[in-house]
Design goal:
Elements (H helix, E strand, L loop, with lengths): L2 H92 L6
């Protein structure tokens, strides 16, 4: 074997090793990027779930306030009806001219 027969396979081996190393480095960078993206997506999902929970709590608060308002409106309507009946009785008892 002469020098040429040993150098050509050696150079081929060096290039193959270099290409393999570059491929592995590229794959490692891709994995790092993907893990970063997945982490970011998981954080966004956690934040959106947290925001949704806050929205749900706010909706529950609004629903409770609306229920209270409905109760108050019903009570006010009862009071106004009693006042209208009392006014009508007063007008009838005094023969006053009451206009609605």
């Amino acid at each position: 074997m002469d020098f040429k027969d040993m150098v050509v396979p050696g150079i081929t081996l060096v290039f193959a090793a270099g290409i393999s190393f570059a491929s592995l480095e590229s794959a490692a960078q891709d994995v790092d990027e993907l893990s970063t993206r997945v982490g970011a997506l998981e954080n966004k999902k956690a934040v959106s779930v947290g925001k949704q929970e806050v929205v749900d709590v706010k909706i529950e608060g609004v629903e409770k306030r609306l229920d209270k308002m409905e109760e108050l409106m019903a009570k006010m309507l009862e009071v106004q009806q009693r006042q209208a009946i009392n006014q009508a009785k007063i007008c009838a008892a005094t023969n006053a001219e009451c206009s609605p």
